[in-house]
Amino acid sequence: MPALVPLLDAGHVQLTGTDRDGIAAVVPALLLRSVGRADPGTVRLFGYDPEHLGGGLAGFAPLGTAGLLTFVGPGGLGRLLDDLVEQIRRINETVLAGEYASLRALAAATGRRPEPWRVAVLLGGDELSRHERGQLDRVVRTGAACGVHLVVRGVDLPDDPTVTRVVVEPDDARIAGLSVALDAPPPAPLVTETCREVASRVNAGPPPAPFTDLLPPPEEYWREDSAHGLTAPIGEGPHGRPVLLTLGDYPPHALIGGPSGTGKTNLIFAWIGALASRYSPAELEFYLLDFKEGVSFARFAQGRRDPSWLPHMRLVGINVNTDREFGLALLRFLAEELRRRADAAKKHEVTKLAELRAVDPTGHWPRIVAVVDEFQALLAGRDVVAREAADLLEDLARRGRSQGIHLVLASQDVRGIEALWGRPALVAQFTLRIALPKALRILAERNDAAQSLPRHHAVVNAESGLVEGNEVARIPSASDWETWSELQHRLWRMRPQDAAPARLFDGDAIPRLADAPDFRALTASEQGVPRSPVALLGEIIDVQARSAALRLPRAPGRNLAVLGTRVDEACAVLDAAARSLARQHRPGSARFSIACLDPDADPAARALYDDLADDAAWYDEETVPELMAEVGDSLGAPGAPNSPHYLLLYAVDAAAGQLAGKAGRRTGLEQLRRILHDGPERRTHVLAWWRGVARMRADLGGAGARLDQIGAWVALDVQGAELSGALYPGTGGPDWYPRPWRGLYFDRAVHRTGQVIIPYGPSR
């Protein structure tokens, strides 16, 4: 029959006898079975071998790379025993806490073991001091219940029921008085390879906890009230208890940090899931913005693959790494919401969201959580976007807490972000700090707890990163498709009847005019001719997916110039403008003259001409002078028709030669200038594309010409400095850095600064 020695969760082992080689064989066999049979990382060894300086445990050395083996040098026995006694005290006080008699009982009751087994291997040494003897006796009496065990040779242990004595003689071995035949010592390669495998699995980190651990029972979904704050678990603590995250009056905002690959996105998913399962959409709304490339957050919005969406989500912005203006638009939207809530609180003579909800129970006052991943992209640089974003962030962080608006900023690395760290008053508002493994500058300066975190863990600190606020949480796996999809579909089926999908902004996607809400809202005027028709030019980079609209009343300067060399984008702007104008006129009530002077633009212009049918006329290089002469001469002619006329001129700067040849250069260009100047008051508007600012200036009178007749323009691949002077107020031009499929729209009758737009994609 096997001879068993009770050790883990049972007691201690003392080896005695005259057969030193036999004793030396028992130690590795006993330790190897303990380490190899337990889950990796749950057994930690402490070796004290003053005679051989650790040589007796050399085969177990690979465990040291995972922190599972600590060698104690000569003279260190007292410190080792002191530490073991302290661990026993801590476990009794904070882990067992009077609820359980032992870790074994706790594990049996909860299914979790929050502490590893600690096995101290004492292989001889000098006579123990009085203090060391006292500490050793305490470990013997109290250690087994707390998972602290001794395996000793050459050290006497006191008589205690937990001590098993193994006597090894040359011809006999006895365990508790029973004769046994000892196994041969385990082969050295087996010891080394086993320890390497255990260390490798520990270094890889423990597997994440199940995502379902964060969720309440389904029958308790949406039962929580957010009037006084939002609280949800983010993971499991070292003692098996949930680690809670709270957003409310304190802490109001959170800062998340961790290098790439440490689980930042997964943590955000886990937190969103824990909150969304507890609070209904009437209690909580999310606004989510991701500045890095990728579409992982798109699953929260309605998609082609999955028609469901998270009912709490109001905005999802992805691939916005080049569209910092969208981040600024979100902050402006939140600032406006903050003002609305502050006005309501003032009206009801209250100061906090909980008070406002109490006095205005019929109002819609959910808590708002705005998550901005890789937020440093928004604050990078020294331009107007960064300055305004930092100002808005500071105001929202300072005043948002009282009105239930909470910011969660996440980053891989926040070093060197001058716009953030240069504002200590802003950073001070983010008292909740969450640091993933190896995160830098998230916690306080001398708090390095994140540097030793294993995978799937995070330091949660609600005390501005100070060491005393540290809590370690094991984060569940929440970001894979199937895990999240099951929860989202359940919540989606619970959604209110009037729930609408979240607004999805994808910086890599080109919007379509037909999908634009402002375009679908356009209808033909009952009077036949609208008083102030609207030309839609593209989608504004903002929260509401509005269209950039150019109003064309009968007023001076109501013309449009599209500037730049990008053919597809210029054609897209003119195409959207023409189609939106045509939608506001009954057939036959407006005239569209299309002149295309660039062969590359011909397909797009032809498609527009075909779709406008009888209301459109086509002009090319040969006939465009006739168009200029006809329209220019008719403006002042008595009895001229007063119906709207829109001139869509593609690459109009290419017409200079034709105008000079047909009607005389001065006469032809003067006709164009006359149309621009006098046409709008007679419902004749020019929407023209020039392939450069200099070319437009030349056509309109030279470098010193007044450009008042160009009331609005869209700049494509044109640098901001080129737009200074008569086109843009102030000096130096706008802060505009061209990028693909983006334009800067400016209407001198409406705007103080330029507005970034996305031209609508081809209509066909």
From TrEMBL:
UniProtKB keywords:
ATP-binding, Cell cycle, Cell division, Nucleotide-binding
Q: Which organism is it from?
A: Micromonospora solifontis
Q: Read off the PROSITE patterns from this record.
A: FTSK
- The domain of life is Bacteria
Biological processes, Gene Ontology terms: cell division
**Coiled-coil annotated spans:** none
Name of the protein in question: Cell division protein FtsK
Residue span, FtsK domain: 240-445
The record's listing under CDD domains reads: TrwB_TraG_TraD_VirD4
Entries under InterPro entries matching the protein: FtsK/SpoIIIE/SftA, FtsK_dom, P-loop_NTPase
Q: Where are the transmembrane segments?
A: none
Task: Give the PANTHER family listed for this entry.
Answer: DNA TRANSLOCASE FTSK, SPORULATION PROTEIN RELATED
**UniProt: ATP binding residues:** G258, P259, S260, G261, T262, G263, K264, T265
